[in-house]
Automatic annotation (TrEMBL):
Protein name: WG repeat-containing protein
Top-level lineage group: Bacteria
InterPro entries xrefs: WG_beta_rep
């Protein structure tokens, strides 16, 4: 997972997120050697404690913390000790949604949806850190809040943001094609609306439409 490191305060204007909270900025406190979050006027909101921290991602902030080795002069080495990095997520106010005790391997935000990785499997959580989509999918591709292309047992299907299956997991390939979803199974193309209603199937030059 690629995390943005911020060592200098960015020359950016204040931007409100969906909750109208002022944007927070990651700043490195050289006295303690960790990143914290500050307002544009340098008011500290979240105490320096992170090894890495992102700028706002849809109003959320992804952070990490890990164990380090130290040089003889007491200076901390930049790289984490392998397998010690843990990830967390803050809301727009700088409060933890996901703390480091969850032990996730990665946390991402896409189109307002929080998705997590553990043991190379994907799932999603809500703002209360409650599991919405179980952590059991090999892939999650969030097209929008109601179209989440997922892979399970090597087959593709589509979920909505509530974790409900709108297209079954039986396809070898699946993607959004303009305003339709195209799925492929045994060289036959199947077309669905974005809410999962079947439109037609196509095999070579033969097309079968929904009656």
């Amino acid at each position: 997972m690629k995390i943005v490191f911020s060592l200098l305060f960015p020359l950016m204007h204040l931007v409100g997120n969906a909750q109208n909270d002022p944007e927070l900025f990651p700043v490195n406190d050289k006295k303690v050697g960790y990143l914290g979050y500050y307002l544009e006027d340098m008011t500290n909101v979240v105490a320096p404690q992170f090894c890495s921290a992102t700028y706002s991602v849809d109003g959320y902030y992804i952070v990490s913390k890990g164990e380090h080795e130290y040089y003889e002069n007491g200076r901390r080495k930049e790289e984490h000790i392998p397998n010690t990095e843990k990830f967390g997520l803050l809301n727009s106010k700088g409060q933890f949604i996901i703390d480091f005790k969850n032990d996730y391997d990665g946390i991402y935000v896409s189109k307002g949806i929080i998705y997590i990785i553990k043991n190379n499997l994907y799932g999603t959580v809500n703002e209360q850190n409650e599991i919405v989509i179980p952590i059991e999918y090999e892939e999650l591709n969030i097209e929008d809040k109601n179209v989440i292309i997922a892979k399970k047992n090597s087959k593709y299907g589509v979920l909505n943001s509530l974790g409900e299956t709108i297209i079954p997991f039986e396809f070898e390939d699946l993607n959004v094609d303009e305003d339709k979803i195209k799925a492929v199974k045994n060289k036959i193309e199947y077309y669905y609306t974005l809410n999962g209603t079947f439109i037609k199937s196509k095999n070579g030059n033969n097309t079968k439409k929904l009656k």
